Fold:
Amino acid sequence: MSDRPVDPLHQLARRIRDGDIGAFESLFRAFHAPLCEIVDGYVRSQAIAEEIVQDLFFVLWVERERFPEARSMRAYMFTAARNRAVHHLRHRAVAKRWTERVRSETEPAVARAPDRFLEAGETQLAVREAIDRLPARTRVAFVLQWEYEMSHDEIATAMDISIKGVEKLIATAKSKLRASLGDHAAAYVERQDHSA
Structure:
């Protein structure tokens, strides 16, 4: 009885885990174009697709020691690219909803009080920029609570962490925002926090 032939992509993954740059370049050449095509089908932008795939390969190389022992490397690569494309679309949807929410909250104020509108707009911009500077997991937890009004339990489920972990992330976010925004803008964050 003959042994099953070893998948050459599986051997490539093993060599990449060992730090073989030539193997990594082979993987890149084999998958870059088809992954870009798949991702472009989701995001409808060749430039964004290129960026997503480049980032995927960057992470694969940086974290090469944890490269998975996948049964099918081809399936793993396409799944990883699809997941990143979906993540990008979700992030874009969040940004769009945020923009629409800010617009709906502030547009009526323009007619009533132009000066107050400008001040509110500047505060919102400062808050948004401060939120964007938060560490990734801290930002996700805070945005889920602040923008989507999710409970700690819902956030814990969405992020696959404990409720205590959520509480710590939210506390960290608020502390960092107070430090970077000062009392005035931090008070704005507190007023908008519907789930406190």
Summary: Residues 73-112 form the longest helix (40 residues). Residues 142 and 170 are 5 Å apart (CA to CA). Helices lie at 8-17, 21-43, 46-62, 73-112, 114-132, 136-146, 152-159, 163-192. Residues 109-118 have pLDDT under 50 and may be disordered.
